[in-house]
């Protein structure tokens, strides 16, 4: 479901333990993994009008505004040596319903931050047209490829 305890960013924000042996304890406190430094979040244009790129991983409704337009991206670097095979993703439109909700976008993954594969494309999708609207979608994981950089 949307923002449940099964996703990658939930795990990275709640897990503890040595590298490779991390686990999520029952009742674990979640900390935004971009705020704690476990991952690096960024905008293609480097700045946000409101908030920081790290807020893009927030589990609560957060108003985050960046530059609009074709080619604008938001990316998360999982770090050197870290890769993930995605099968679903969740996205929330953060703001008033009339503040340019996403309609056309792609979820992409990359191993090197240069070459990108499209995991899911959305065209004229109005699912996120609503105040803090959210939804989850399956991704094309048929190749089973692992990625270091998500989403874009």
Set out the fold topology.
Elements: H1 8-14, H2 33-36, E1 40-43, E2 48-50, E3 65-66, E4 74-77, E5 88-92, E6 105-109, E7 117-122, E8 134-138, E9 149-150
Antiparallel strand pairs: 1-4, 2-3, 4-9, 5-8, 6-7
Low-confidence stretches: none
Number of strands: 9
Distance between the termini: 21 Å
Task: Classify the beta-strand content into a percent band.
Answer: 15-25%
Approximate helicity band: under 10%
The run of helices and strands is: HHEEEEEEEEE
Q: How are the strands of the largest sheet arranged?
A: 1-4-9
Main pleated sheet: 3 strands, antiparallel
**Average predicted local confidence, pLDDT:** 81
**Count of DSSP helices?**
2
| Envelope shape | globular
Helix/strand class: mainly beta
User: What's the gyration radius in Å?
Assistant: 15 Å
Overview of the structural elements:
The chain is mostly beta strands and 152 residues long. 7% of the residues lie in helices and 24% in strands. Strands 1-4-9 form a three-stranded antiparallel beta sheet. It is globular, with a radius of gyration of 15 Å. The model has no long low-confidence stretch (mean pLDDT 81).
What labels would you give this structure?
152 residues, two-stranded antiparallel ribbon, 7% helix
Concise overview:
The chain is mostly beta strands. It is built from two helices and nine strands.
């Amino acid at each position: 479901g949307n923002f449940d305890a099964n996703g990658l960013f939930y795990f990275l924000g709640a897990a503890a333990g040595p590298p490779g042996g991390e686990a999520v304890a029952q009742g674990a406190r979640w900390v935004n993994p971009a705020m704690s430094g476990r991952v690096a979040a960024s905008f293609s244009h480097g700045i946000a009008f409101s908030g920081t790129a790290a807020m893009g991983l927030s589990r609560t409704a957060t108003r985050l505004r960046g530059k609009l337009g074709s080619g604008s991206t938001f990316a998360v670097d999982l770090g050197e040596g870290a890769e993930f095979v995605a099968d679903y993703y969740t996205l929330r439109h953060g703001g008033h319903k009339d503040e340019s909700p996403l309609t056309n976008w792609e979820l992409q993954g990359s191993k090197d931050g240069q070459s990108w594969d499209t995991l899911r494309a959305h065209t004229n999708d109005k699912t996120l047209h609503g105040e803090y609207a959210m939804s989850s979608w399956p991704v094309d994981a048929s190749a089973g490829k692992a990625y270091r950089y998500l989403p874009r």
